[in-house]
Amino acid sequence: MNAPHQPDPRDRPARLTVGVVGAGRVGPALAAALQLAGHRPVAASGVSEASVRRAALLLPDVPLVTPAQVLERADLVLLTVPDDALPSLVEGLVETDAVRPGQLMVHTSGRYGTKVLEPALRAGALPLALHPAMTFTGTAVDVQRLAGCSFGVTAPEELRLAAEALVIEMGGEPEWIAEESRPLYHAALALGANHLVTLVAESMDLLRDAGVEAPDRMLGPLLGAALDNALRSGDAALTGPVARGDAGTVAAHVAELRKHAPQTVAGYLAMARATADRALAHGLLKPELAEDLLGVLANGGGPADGAGGGTR
Hints:
48% helix, 7 strands, 7-stranded mixed β-sheet, 312 residues
């Protein structure tokens, strides 16, 4: 029996023409996902060599033009520039009369809601904030990763259905974020995802220094289990010398880090203090052990004053 014919998305009637202003890692991936849903990317802007390569890979045959020309051709405009560049970009597009009434103006910044798009709203645009809670590589794998990805969505009440539909068409799950909560929402994601990369990279560097040939292979199962436990159980998943109150072990860690990787000491101490606070509040760290541990941390990893060297 022949397999059923799967229609080519390019054969579907295009509902919206899509433009990308800022062909970084995010914009081309979202435009490619919208193309799979039947929309038609028609223009993108980007000047760096990396932007040109990404656009060619994910949006073949889509011309690279100026931002104003993107807005001229598109019903739905994705503003996918760095957070700090977004306000001036919006103001510049409005000042040059590039914004058309009825045009969907979508930014992907985690920091901002729709207030940053107010100049475009006054020009008649329809503002949406759709932030994918995902890390992007700038390759085709990003489109696949959007399946099941949560989007932080902020939209006027009358545009909530449109925002929800676009997210679902890209394979995502909408999570509604109030305008005033956007900075906190974004800080939470940065704390969890961006800092995780730093911690893992530092851990791999230290393992290499300790003679481990394949630190990624060693860390993979451990980090996978830790992440799964944390997502399932929160603070109850805390383990290790800090949660146990092993002040002597923590002091030995800091001594080794000062010797081999002094740039990591401040981060280790800060995370250890935060871990100790959470373990103590959750009842995992016994108060009688916490005193010596917190003393070691307060002393920069050295023996706590009056704690007998912190070697219990």
